[in-house]
From TrEMBL:
Keywords: Methyltransferase, Transferase. SUPFAM superfamilies: S-adenosyl-L-methionine-dependent methyltransferases. Residues 246-405 form the C-methyltransferase domain. One of its GO terms (molecular function) is methyltransferase activity. The keyword Transferase applies. Gene3D superfamilies: 6.10.250.3100, Methyltransferase, zinc-binding domain, NAD(P)-binding Rossmann-like Domain, Vaccinia Virus protein VP39. One of its GO terms (biological process) is methylation. This is Methyltransferase domain-containing protein. It comes from Paenibacillus whitsoniae.
Length: 410
């Protein structure tokens, strides 16, 4: 399309970062009754803006269609919950949050995080667009405003006297089709001396470790620190600190404040991270175009493992039904000819089928019943947690496989 424009700076988008072909929406799990009906497939083609270096997909479906009834519940990962407990302990200590403070989380999901502030008697408010997920948070006693976040929602909250001392957004920025509306909303929802923390997968890690499966339609954008700083600065928000995190294959957490506040000095970690990105080549378009060839090589290695294992008569099943797994399986053309089934701890996914591949999802107990030779860990970022939970597979000689950043059997 000649009028394809960057969603942040409005520059023309002409440079391909990676083209993963046609895939269904990664969270559009199928019911038994839908298996004989057609599915919608969309181009999964990531472009990079030559002006601001924002990597992005075109918008084919509205956020309302994707997120109003959502299959992902954050509380089913023990390691993620532990990560959040540690965050709450650190942030409440470092920034002296009390019973007089207000913590607001955007995309608060099932209350996985706010529950820990609540235990400390710190007032909380969640903003969550998916009513089915928000219902679970409300059942935990967490006040939740069911709405998409942006200027309008932030203004409504501010008119009710609800502005944040701490405003949190974890793994939500990528899901936002209108970055200007969302970040301006954060500015409106933040008290004059409040702080924002946001976590998101780091584009540098995505590219350096071939994490192509974290690209899917629900993730409209993919961020480096330099690009996020530009986006925040456009709404008079200053990033004053950054941390590298191990979550989701390598994330960063940014800390921001109103530009006019200036209460917190800019940490040296910000400059160090910007230098790291520059050294990697994130300001050079050739680095982005090279990513595509690396992804193709990863696909060939994944298929080589599957073909060899099946030719040897081995049985393979999946563990997990994450969105990233659906990108990987659909891009690589891996269906039930290779994988008999997958399992997931979330009862909200059990009994459903993966989009595109139609692979059935069962309770994890099925693995002990069928004793497969290989268990492909689709949420590879949780491989330590999952392999520990499922170590009994070694009793019958089973082995784990992770596909990214390279095929590893252990």
């Amino acid at each position: 399309m000649e009028d394809r424009k960057c969603r942040f700076c409005d520059a023309a988008l002409t440079v391909t970062c990676v083209d993963l072909g046609m895939t269904p929406l990664s969270n559009s799990y199928l019911h038994q009754g839908s298996l004989d009906k057609k599915e919608s497939f969309y181009p999964l083609h990531a472009y990079v803006c030559g002006e601001c270096f924002l990597v992005q997909l075109e918008k084919f479906e509205s956020a309302e269609h994707i997120f109003s009834d959502y299959a992902y519940f954050s509380s089913y990962s023990d390691s993620w919950l532990e990560h959040m407990k540690q965050y709450v302990s650190e942030i409440t200590s470092d920034y002296e949050l009390t019973s007089e403070s207000l913590v607001i989380e955007v995309a608060s999901n099932d209350g996985y995080l706010l529950q820990y502030f609540k235990e400390l008697n710190i007032p909380v408010l969640g903003v969550e667009p998916a009513a089915n997920v928000a219902k679970v948070a409300k059942e935990k006693g967490i006040e939740t405003y069911v709405n998409f976040f942006g200027r309008k929602a932030a203004s409504e909250l501010a008119s009710m006297g609800k502005q944040a001392d701490l405003l949190i957004g974890n793994n939500v920025l990528a899901h936002v089709p209108d970055l200007h509306d969302f970040v301006e909303g954060m500015s409106l929802a933040l008290k004059p001396n409040g702080i924002i923390t946001m976590e998101f997968p780091h584009l540098l890690r995505l590219m350096s470790e071939n994490q192509f499966d974290t690209i899917y339609h629900e993730h409209f954008s993919y961020f480096s620190l330099i690009t996020v700083m530009k986006i925040f600065a456009s709404k008079k928000l200053t990033v004053f600190d950054v941390q590298e995190l191990p979550t989701h294959g390598g994330s960063i957490r940014i800390y921001a404040q109103h530009k006019e506040s200036g209460e917190h000095p800019v940490s040296s970690r910000v400059e160090n991270m910007l230098k790291k990105e520059e050294s990697f080549g994130m300001y050079d378009l050739s680095r982005y175009t090279a990513f595509s060839e690396n992804v193709k090589a990863t696909k060939r290695a994944i298929l080589e493992f599957f073909i060899t294992a099946k030719n040897e008569g081995k049985t393979i099943v999946g563990y997990g039904a994450p969105a990233k797994g659906n990108t990987l399986l659909n891009y690589c053309g891996v269906g039930m000819d290779f994988i008999d089934y997958t399992v997931d701890r979330s009862p909200h996914k059990q009994g459903l089928f993966l989009p595109g591949t139609r692979i059935p999802i069962y309770d994890p107990i099925k693995i002990a019943e069928t004793k497969p030779d290989y268990i492909l860990i689709l949420p590879w970022n949780l491989k330590d947690e999952i392999s520990k939970q499922m170590k009994h597979i070694y009793e019958w000689g089973g082995r784990f496989v992770v596909p990214v950043p390279e095929v590893e059997v252990f």
